[in-house]
Amino acid sequence: MTNTSNPICYLLFFLSLLLISSSMTNAKTHYHDFVVQATPVKRLCKTHNTITVNGMYPGPTLEVNNGDTLVVNVMNRAQYNVTIHWHGVRQIRTGWADGPEFVTQCPIRPGGSYTYRFTIQGQEGTLWWHAHSSWLRATVYGALIIRPKEGDSYPFPKPKRETALLLGEWWDANPIDVVRQATRTGAAPNVSDAYTINGQPGDLYNCSSKDTLIVPVGSGETNLLRVVNSALNQELFFKVANHKLTVVGADASYVKPFTTSVLMLGPGQTTDVLITADQSPARYYIAARAYNSAQGAPFDNTTTTAILEYKSAPCPAKGTSVKPVMPTMPAFNDTATVTAFTTSFRSPRKVSVPTKIDHNLFFTVGLGLNRCPPGASRSTCQGPNGTRFTASMNNVSFVLPSNFSLLQAHQQGIPGVFTTDFPANPPVQFDYTGNVSRSLWQPIAGTKVYRLKYGETVQLVLQGTSIFTAENHPIHLHGYDFYILAEGFGNFNPSRDTGKFNLVDPPLRNTASVPVGGWSVIRFVADNPGVWLMHCHLDVHITWGLAMAFLVENGVGELQTLEPPPKDLPLC
Ligand code: C2O
To answer: Where would one find coiled-coil regions in this protein (predicted)?
Structure first.
């Protein structure tokens, strides 16, 4: 065809080249502006000047395909420092766009801006984005929906509709004031006043009958619900009255489908479920309320609702009000239901779990109580028995730097910002879930990271402690997905528990619910250079220091090397 002088043939040839190249590079780049600003939001009878993105609560939903690039310009027009984290995005080589403040960047100051650029690589399903600075994420969050590449399909029948349901937590106060007060007094922060679904508490709360999300459905349809726990401090049960849910994905990885009537999500976790409208046409409550595993601790025991409404549901006769059908929720402390749910997850098929382990790590995770420092005013020691709440991993209570981000200090070799001596094991072994001696209740504050070479394999036992109280901790690792090989109660015992590891089809997640008074075992390959925070996603616990970071060195060549920092990276 090119051996011709006919100009039409040339034209056709170039057109066909164009077509080929455009079908090979159908990955798109999505540009967004996020303006972080105070916006009046009225909930529970009262209006607050709420920090939002683009005046929306929750913020905008981002919809992309696997392989696409996101370019999000964040402008801070609020009075607080802010950063945005793209929860669950692997950020391969783009750690500068991960977002946790003082870990991968300094905060965007009021009046400042920063553009996050990153590409979605090999992830499909539901993730989300949220502020990663103080407690701003109470209201600064939104969904990130990743569909298969164009031309690819879901590994399940195409749902008729898709609905993202973000579960949130609302304070009838400024959340920043709530955490500041707790930090000042050393006491536990006030619990929230409501949970929300897409920002709406639902009609079981005062002044909220109009603030109820309606999810329409046609009889016989199968729809996809993308459920995200965006609550700050509470694990949540989720149910739809009279309907079964088929779990098909979690944390932007597909899972072997299984059917359940109830979900439990820790903050940070997402669960994609199919729901078939196979009940009589009516209105059914979608409800979420607390899974509270910590004994005796105060918690928000309210229930948020939305309404699944069949389009053919008979209209209630004038003047009558037919309440939607309410699901029976599990008891607040129903750990048996949680265990049955979390142990149902499998990868869709056999996966290659790393079997040669370079780092065999054991981290305790839990709370602590600091004695009141000598001379301190009693008003600053209002934790139990005149103490201050704290939390730690392996007895280190994590302290964020304030002059440089960890990633910048690492990349530029700035000394004195962190040390690389985060311990592989707890400094003292004890009966972690028993009656822990008071001498072990006070961790050491520090900014310690654990160093990994590129490509090394890690097995990590996350062991909950019962210091002060045992509770379920949603442990989230930035920059990675990990396989969850097993979980159990009591102290992890390698000779007894190693046999229980699922090395065939364990689920791939970015947040593990470590059972109350128990343990989880995860594995991952350190194939993403950078500094990656790992923390409890109950924000009250991260505030108290339940965090650490992995420092993953560059490997060989460009593809194993962190990209250079963007020009507009905020400095401290
Ligand atoms: Cu979704 Cu470090 O968090």
So the answer is: none
